[in-house]
What does this fold into?
Amino acid sequence: MLMRIFVLFVVCFIFCILPGCEKKSPGTTAFEEPDTSYNGGAVVRKPNIYIYPDKKIELHVALNFSNGGSIINSEPEYRDGWNIHVDKNGLINGKYKYLFYECRVPDLFQYQFGWFIPKDSLTHFFKKNLEKSGFVKNEIQDFLDYWIPRLISYPYYFIYPQFSLYLNTIVELNFSKQPDNVLRLFYVIKGTDKREASIQAPIIPRFYRKGFVAVEWGVVWK
It folds into this structure.
C-alpha cells in the first residue's frame, strides 16, 4: 500500500510540479503579460507591414529610430533592412503575407486622445475602428485573431491610437520606392479595473487606398 502511494506521488511530481511541465493554452506566445517599461520606453509588439504594389516589384524596406530604439524580432530577418520582392497581391518573397518585426523605443506616444472600452466590446471596437481607419478584411482579421485572445486580464481598456504622422517621429518607415499611400496605426493599450473614465476621442485621419499601398498595424501593451 505504501509503495502504491509513493508511486502515485512520484507520477504527480513529474507531471504537475517540475518546471516546464505546466500546460499552455493554445495560441499562446512567449509573452503573456503587458510589457514593463524599457528604460522609460516601450516595446512595440507585432507590427505587421502589408505591401500592395501596382505591379510585381523589388523593394528595400528600412526602419529608422530617430529618437533611439532597436529591433528585437523580425521575419524575414531584418539585417540592414528587408530586401524583398512583392507580388501585386501582396505576397512577399513568395511566402509571407506581411513583414513582421518587434522593437524597443522611447515612450514618446500620445496619451491625450483615445477610447475607454469594456473587454466584452473589444472585438466590435477594433473591427469598426480598423475598418474606419482604412484597413481591409484580411488585415483586420489578423489583428483580431492575434490580439483579442490576449486582452483578457482586465474588464476595461484604455486605447490610445498613434497615427501615421505621429509614428514617423518614433519609428520611421522608408521604402526604396515610395508607395502612393501609406497607412500606419499603432495602439497603446492599457488595462484597468475602473468602471468609468473620461477621455477625449481622436479624429481618425482619412486614408485613400489607391495605387501602390502599404499599411501597418502594431500594439504597445502596457
Observations:
- The CA atoms of residues 121 and 156 lie 9 Å apart.
- The longest strand covers residues 41-52.
